[in-house]
Amino acid sequence: MEENAVGVHNVMEDVVRDTLLSYKNNMNLACDCEQCLSDISALALNELPPRYIANSKYSPYVRASHEADHQGITTIIAVIAKSAALVSESPRCETFVNK
Amino acid sequence: MEENAVGVHNVMEDVVRDTLLSYKNNMNLACDCEQCLSDISALALNELPPRYIANSKYSPYVRASHEADHQGITTIIAVIAKSAALVSESPRCETFVNK
């Protein structure tokens, strides 16, 4: 997708992506295509607090703070699992829409 | 900055960028370099609700809903103005840090 014109990045995007990829095999996904994973990520990111940074060199520090925060990561997993259940109920990718 | 690996995009990034560029001349910025504008955007985006989409073709619909929402855009301007005041108090760009 497009680059950000103003140089900002939401580190939560990386945290959600990594968490989703780590746990997707335990989430009974109806489909794990790129489109469905994006749908799950977008839903989850709309529920989680954004963590924007203006300089990507600080990204590891913000990510580390999330990895060390066990309660926080549990919340993130729960939000992703809820989003995954929603998307699995009605997947919108080509595989399912054309069925 | 890096592309998003999972194809999601926060439309609020575009709304904040456009609003900031429209109003920056009325915000008494200490500096309007790219770095300071990114700092202001990142601060504002951390306070505003994210509006992630998984398919960029829907971006105009989400943006239109923000443009039609006068109370919403007033809140966005207020958050950006607060962020701009914070960054203007202590700019971190090279122009100021090396002074």
From TrEMBL, chains A, B:
Pfam families: ComFB. This is Late competence development ComFB family protein. It comes from Sporosarcina gallistercoris. The lineage of its organism: Bacteria, Bacillati, Bacillota, Bacilli, Bacillales.
